[in-house]
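User: Structure please.
Assistant: Input sequence and predicted structure:
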Amino acid sequence: MKGPLSAGLRYLFFVTLILWLPHAAMAGGGGQQLVVATDKSQCPNATFSRIQDAINAARADDSIRVCKGVYTEQLRIQTSLSLQADSGAVLLPNQIQANAASLFDSSPIAAAILVINARSVSINGLIVDGANSGISQCSPSLVGVMFQNASGRIDTSVIRNFKLTTDLSGCQSGNGVIVQSGDGQS
């Protein structure tokens, strides 16, 4: 087809493409966004009430929006994804359980967030609080966020209260972030 109509269609196609490209780039490579909220009045479009359920449903490169609220759970991330927390989103696990073993000496580790065997995991804006950890012995080691044979980044997040009681002052436990690799991984 030639003439003014085809030129107009080509122009419309290119304008549409130019307007669409920046939005596609901001979407983070095409992954979907999953939304988590403890209270749907904060985020009415939320489809999950627990962060771990959204993590389990996520595919590589998806983004999980964590709406304002207190989430009393431990997280295990094994997929490349992004956790984007709204202001006031707090991960406050109750009675943190051992969920990993050290790659160096197999000692048990209890991490509030365990990122394991995943590349490119991003945690942004989340408050991770160990105040209710329930750890009352030297073992397992208490950790806020652990990257094990994994990579990623933590931005504008707060990791607090990952410490043992004063009567356990001789223990080597209570770390905010630990990064560990082994088995030939880097």
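Residues 4-26 form the longest helix (23 residues).
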